[in-house]
Amino acid sequence: MKGRSSAPVVVIGAGLTGLSAARHLGRRCVVFEAEDAPGGLARSHRIDGYTFDRTGHWLHLKDKRIRRSLLRLTDWMEVERVSKAFTYDHQTEYPFQVHLHGHRPDILLDCLVGLWKAHDQRRSRRSIHTFEDFIYEHFGEGIARHFLLPYNEKLWGVPAKHMTTDWCQRFFPATPVEQILAGIVGAKLPQMGYNVAFLYPKNGGIGLLAQAMADRLPKGVLSLSSPVERIDYKKKQLMVNGQWTAYSGIISTIPLPELIARLENPPKRVLQAVEKLTWTQVHYLDVATKRPVRQSYHWVYVPERKYPFYRAGVYSNVAPHMAPKGGSSLYVELSSRATPSAATIKDVVAGMKAIGLISSARDVLFAKPQSIEYAYVIYDQNHQTTRRFLLSFLASKGIHSTGRYGSWEYNSMEDSILAGRNAAASYLPNKQ
Ligand SMILES: Cc1cc2nc3c(=O)[nH]c(=O)nc-3n(C[C@H](O)[C@H](O)[C@H](O)COP(=O)(O)OP(=O)(O)OC[C@H]3O[C@@H](n4cnc5c(N)ncnc54)[C@H](O)[C@@H]3O)c2cc1C
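^ thats the input. predicted complex w/ flavin-adenine dinucleotide below
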């Protein structure tokens, strides 16, 4: 790099984690991004006047410093979540477990009896090892069977019994029994969960955030269409587009298996460990309609296996500028991990009609399949030990692997921005 006396810190990937690290490092770093635009998962694109994110990306901010700094980057609207659950031909508020009122008596009875039994047997039960144990323990058999188990299996692509509870505390808190009972008798409850309100750009998709972060980097720091191909950690150099470049340190935000695959001659134990990492791919559809959808919610959870999707959301119900006047832009997240065929898309559209989202298949202008290869890291029994081992091996070689897929965890955009800030701090003279 021109004018630089020593090798830079290299940031691999210009998703939110990489961009955040680069904001703090400035000219000390160079960012190599494989794609031709920044943002990673937080990118948006437009098709025929309809704007789509890489499924719903709603920004929840708790950290005051990050909030102050992001609010300055673009204009935001603050939105209160409107989310529903659709099951047994019935639409309720979300979360399902605290809005049981109005369901069929047999379902209510199942949920009540299950809850009572779970409560009654709590002291005698064996300890909780799996996500399935956690669901039975806190919600009982009925809520598990009617919503939580089928929904989560559709989302994660593996049964809850194959997962641990390591991620639950924050993203899946246990619900007090009193609240479930209140929901059964129809008492009005305050909105629940970590995502009750969120920010969204006033003038575009979530990609505006990443673009605004990228625009503020010093000239020459961000290098697009520059995939990192190989890393020689012994010589402290990496290859980009066939050229070797020296570095002083690496902040990598690409998925752990992709990073390890790029190392020159890593130890066998590292290659064996990476084989143990599991994750799930997600296929989804960008859907545009010619007429406004029939629902005003932002998104809906659909647990029943007969529908080929588990969640559908309407960007233009959050932000009308996401679709041309009179139309709607949506995402529909598919349960199957197989590439969607024309027949699957037809079934999805039929399902959208069946849950009352659209009036007719003819309303759909297009439904384009998209996919995210590394969507969800699976918290199986090997997850913690394997990721710890790999991260500490990489750290010992001067590679800080961080972000949602770099540190191999379930996180949010805010977490990624924080992770980038923290990674940068270790390369700054006065640690913040
Ligand atoms: C379906 C889904 C919905 C989500 N919804 C929300 C939400 O509503 N709210 C929320 O807060 N969070 C949400 N998230 C989480 C959010 O997307 C992530 O926390 C965040 O975007 C991760 O950013 P990152 O920079 O760590 O990773 P990424 O966005 O994956 O960025 C990594 C970057 O590395 C680049 N790259 C890959 N390989 C190379 C290479 N060899 N060389 C150079 N560059 C490379 C990629 O192109 C990419 O730009 C969601 C995630 C998913 C999967």
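The first strand starts at residue 9 and ends at 12.
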